[in-house]
Amino acid sequence: MTDPLQSLRRCADTIYSCRSCGMCGNKMTAKVPYVCPLREATPGFDHFYARGKIVIARGLLEGALEMTSDLAEAAYGCMLCGNCMTQCGATDRATAEPLVDTVRIVEALRADLLRVHPEWVAEGYRSLLAATRQYDNPWGAPRSLREKWCKGLDLPRAPQAGCDVLLFAGCTIASTPALHERARKAVQVLRAAGINPAIMGRDEPCCASVQRRIGAADMAGDMVRANVEQLNAAGCSEIVALCAGCANMLAGDYRTAGLKARVCHIVPFLAALLEQGRLVPRNAYPHAVCYHDPCHLGRHMGIYDQPRAVLRALPGLSLVERTATRQNTLCCGAGGGMRVFESGTLSLDIAREGLASARKAGAEVMVSACPFCEINLDAAAQVLAEPMQVLDIIDLVHASVEVRG
Ligand code: SF4
Ligand code: SF4
Predict the structure, then answer these.
(1) Does the pTM exceed 0.90?
(2) Does the Cβ of 285 fall within 6 Å of ligand 2?
(3) Would you tell me which CATH number, out of the four given (3.30.1760, 1.10.10, 3.40.50, 3.30.750), belongs to the domain 280-400?
């Protein structure tokens, strides 16, 4: 018989590294006003932040607790943002790396729950998985929609093209018509720097980040293995991803599974082009801009400097920082499938907090580098008494450099 706790058992080491100190549920310093945005947005019961989730994981492993339907709230109420890992005092003495990997623990909790009791997992998550089975992506977008963003751009197709750079739009951008312009702008900016990227169009696979985060570990593993084969066959030496979730997945799980190409998110790629003088920003953008670090790009990939370097290179722009920034930043509210949890109301509350802190810092515009952050922040910005514009870094670079069709 399959072990119902097989995923949790694989992370016993990290579960037992927790000292139950509760620091991850606290308010802290000026730079870290609080650790867990979810705890802050709820009545604050222990199961909403890391310590409580780990106590539950331990209880299950030791047989002191049984799986019940209540477990779903502890497992799915988490943005996998990793701030608790960053602030946790349990670190490896030699490397200073965190010993408690909450993201891994919560993903394992979800994986065991989904495998053993899928009926306890909210319908919204199961719909994302059903859509993946039918359409190969969680958003239920048919292949024909997923190549619409590039219509008329005459981009070379991999694997036929034999290009160095493969632009990976990601299924969130490709499936959301409102974001198609973003991908087109990215192509125009790359072309302004003399790069004509290849794409996979309707054959571009879903990276499996969403499936992995919501607990479908086996499905995600199968997708990664198949996609690595397809991407290796594409023959490009560098994959440039437009989505922070895709970039993190491609640089992590795909690399481990044998992906040969280098992986770069579009923002550090643009930062390098600006530094080399291959992109020259000319048009001024005279606004105060706050950069929101997407968790996938910041805490999970360590990319903090390049987005700020890109923004500082744009004439007229003034960059403002919130008090909690860089590794201490607070999630936009959409990570880890949270837009499905309680119909997304907590996600929006958390996004509103983020926008309010940007406004307090003097920002007129909030900029990010991930479609998930943008969608959630924008939805929250629409209902503010004083709306705030939410954009992606690509929009600003595109407006500043000379681009052709
Ligand atoms: S996860 Fe870290 S900060 Fe939270 S209770 Fe455990 S040891 Fe303390
Ligand atoms: S990963 Fe983020 S949302 Fe989840 S428990 Fe840690 S701080 Fe809270």
Answers:
(1) yes
(2) no
(3) 3.40.50
